[in-house]
Amino acid sequence: MKIATWNINSLNVRLPHVLDWLAANQPDVLCLQETKLPDDRFPLAELQEAGYQCAFSGQKTYNGVAILSKSPLADVQCGIPDFDDEQKRVIAATIDGVRIVCVYVPNGQAVETDKYFYKLKWLKALTAWLAEEMRAHPKLALLGDYNIAPEDRDVYDPQAWAGGILVSEPERDAFRALERLGLRDAFRLFEQADKSYSWWDYRAVAFRRNMGLRIDHILLSDTLAPHCTACSIDREPRKLERPSDHAPVVAELSLP
DNA sequence: ATGGCTTCATAGTGAAGA
User: Fold this and answer.
1) pLDDT at A256 exceeding the cut of 90
2) CB atoms closer than 10 angstroms to residue A27
3) What's the CA A160/C1' B1 distance, rounded, in angstroms?
4) Residue A154 among the catalytic residues
5) How far apart are CA A102 and CA A143, in angstroms?
6) Contact, A192 CB vs strand B, < 7 Å
7) Are residues A127 and A177 in contact, defined by beta-carbon separation less than 8 angstroms?
8) Is the full-model pTM beyond 0.90?
9) Is A109 (CB) below 7 Å from strand B?
């Protein structure tokens, strides 16, 4: 089972890239973030034509998440239960016995702002919910744009970023709290090249200079992690015309 | 040194992203 996550920064703009990537890579599951489309504008027909069933939860202009799957999606859940939130940032479904949770974690804008406190509150609610969700579904994968670079090695210039948004200690603590639930960072299960990132600013030719951050992650429950045989970041789509600023992250699971 | 781009909502420019 090949699972992947990609913040595509507007599905409207990026649909051709998504279709090309699906055709070339044939993932079983692709989680999308920042679709930026209300549900009545979701390009369902095109994705079904490509062989994917879809669950989606979107809104105009901001946020929006979706799960594309070759197999049927069961028990679709939108949002964090008992957490009141207008913003469409969470969708979950069970696919071939694996609970897939797709998240677009708030950006937080800058430390100590209202958006930052919302981010921390949101992460706390997510973690509390996942603790339950993992009891109900031991085989769980949490994929998405976490907007957190867990360690300094996930940042191109840790000194310049020290204490800032995406790397601050409270954010990293929140990431570790997810790990304490028994979730494993699939990317770090394997040897990886230094300076591996998943996001590069559109400005300042950041991609060409590899000035990036690793903020998109696949976390696997400890029941699932032993079945993971590979995890990588695909930089190829970032090289295209009009790319998303994020690259897809892909994990392979060898399930019985 | 600073801001540097892209998207969306608009119909000028501004907000937001990370």
Assistant:
1) no
2) 22
3) 15
4) no
5) 5
6) no
7) yes
8) yes
9) yes
